[in-house]
Amino acid sequence: MLREIVAPERLLLSQEVEEVIAPGELGQFGVLPGHRPFFVALGIGELIYRADGEEYHVALGGGFAEVLPDRVTVLADWAELPEEIDLEKARTQKEEAEARLKELVPMDPEYDLTLRKLQEALLRLQVRGQSETSRTPR
Q: For a FRET experiment, which of 18, 39, 43, 49 has its CA 20 to 30 Å from that of 69?
């Protein structure tokens, strides 16, 4: 099954894979070759795929996925490979978002945006940490 991840500025990855696990808006879903076709909105989360018996991780910032029996195409709002993640920047973003959330209430217009920034920072730290213990995507 071919898997492609397209971000606004580039084709991030394109390769044959055995399985894809992605963060859908309504929850995580998995795809194996021969899956029934569907189209789904993606949330912020970790996209995992398996190729040649190895597991790979990608930070994914929402978008859409089209699943066909022989292909999964991800059109991401943003996506980063583990080696592209700036750990210091992610830590700073996390700390700033946590501090800002302490000043806001859920009804504040900035609350959702700040919460999203915190989720993105935590995701980047998680995916980068995963790459420390596994192989990086090719």
A: 43
Please give the Cα distance from 15 to 84 (Å, whole number): 19
For 49-102, the pLDDT digits (tens) are 999 999 999 999 999 999 999 999 999 999 999 999 999 999 999 999 999 999
Check: CATH 2.60.15.10 for 2-82? Answer: yes
Amino acid of residue 64:
F
Q: How many CB atoms lie within 10 A of CB 136?
A: 14
Q: Report the greatest alpha carbon distance in the chain.
A: 49
Radius of gyration of the chain (CA): 16
Q: Which of 123, 98, 116 is nearest to 23 (CA)?
A: 123
